[in-house]
Design brief:
- 43% of the residues lie in helices and 18% in strands.
- The chain has 329 residues and is of the alpha/beta class.
- The strands form three sheets. The chain has a five-stranded mixed sheet, with helices on both faces.
- 34% of the residues are buried.
């Protein structure tokens, strides 16, 4: 009798444990199914949003193709139309800035400095595809290919004070900024990288993403303008911050050819013609990228991996002692 009770109790215990295990498994399976449903729903939403953005961007792209004076660039725009789905969002973002600058005392010829996080990736594209319409006179890059830059470079580019002789190179690993002339690329040109002069030469695809508050590039730039003076008349600085309307995500990357095409379209209804100065890092999107470094050296210059570029005190008119004090503060 006691044995029966013991066996019965054991069976009930095992049954209860089995039911608990089955219940837990069921919950896990439901969670698994829900997770996969959400995953596929998210993919569907992203695909739908991309198609919607492409539909909204299409009239802008067609207008650009119609007005583009270069037949090769027109053909390139048509062949790569699917990659312009962010065009309408970038157009909206830039138009707000240009409309505000129209109210200021600028002349009709301006310098537009676009500040963003940046990187380079494949495929290679013709440089002149970044200047699809004649209202962008040139797009200028400042560092060698495969190089990061800092807020001091941002200040130099924004104010127009930057000169080739100001360049200082360093190893960019582990937040180090100790000057190292071994990082200076050989045969570094004594002028900036003008994509107008590059013409049909192939360059990597440049991409930009929004500035993040936790990376204090813009905060440092603003402190430099307070100390050394802001950009002057005819210089329009556009930081790529999230505008708040949710038109870009914080992790979204945008090809620079979308930025310059959107800007060209905005400028069609503006009095401005512009030279665009791109203030972004030009490092590889992935360390495993196989760039044709010899080609990039011929096009302009290419740095070794983990190279950074900053500027000497001369951009501020400071002493050498002041430079090192600022560098290590």
């Amino acid at each position: 009798m006691n044995n029966s009770k013991t066996e019965g109790s054991q069976t009930q215990k095992e049954t209860a444990e089995a039911r608990t295990a089955l219940k837990k498994l069921k919950e896990e399976m439901e969670g698994f199914v829900t997770l996969h449903q959400m995953f596929f729903f998210t993919l569907l939403m992203e695909h739908t949003e991309k198609r919607l953005m492409m539909a909204l961007s299409q009239p802008l792209l067609e207008a650009a193709v119609t007005k583009c004076p270069d037949q090769t660039t027109r053909q390139w725009l048509r062949e790569n139309s699917e990659s312009f789905f962010q065009l309408v969002n970038m157009f909206t973002f830039l138009k707000k800035h240009i409309d505000e600058e129209e109210k200021k005392n600028h002349s009709d010829d301006v310098d537009i400095i676009f500040v963003a996080h940046g990187s380079i990736r494949l495929p290679m594209i013709p440089a002149n595809c970044l200047m699809p319409l004649s209202n962008i006179r040139d797009v200028v890059l400042y560092s060698p290919w495969n190089c990061v830059t800092d807020a001091i470079v941002t200040y130099g580019v924004a104010t127009g004070k930057i000169k080739p002789e100001h360049r200082i190179f360093y190893l960019s690993k582990n937040n180090s900024k100790i000057p190292d002339e071994k990082r200076r690329p050989a045969n570094l040109p004594n002028q900036w990288n003008s994509l107008k002069k590059a013409g049909g030469q192939k360059i990597p695809t440049l991409t930009v993403s929004p500035l993040h508050p936790e990376v204090a590039v813009w905060e440092r730039y603003e402190s430099l303008t307070k100390k050394h003076g802001p950009p002057g008349r005819n210089r329009i600085v556009i930081p790529f911050f999230l505008p708040g309307q949710g038109i870009f995500s914080s992790s979204e990357t945008v090809p620079v050819y979308v930025v310059t095409l959107a800007l060209s379209l905005v400028l069609l209804s503006s009095r401005f013609k512009a030279t665009v100065h791109l203030d972004t890092c030009l490092s590889k999107m992935s360390g495993e990228m196989n760039l044709d470094e010899n080609h990039l050296k011929q096009q302009y210059s290419c740095a070794a991996d983990d190279t950074g570029m900053t500027l000497s005190d001369d951009v501020f008119g400071e002493t050498l002692m002041g430079f090192f004090k600022r560098l290590f503060s």
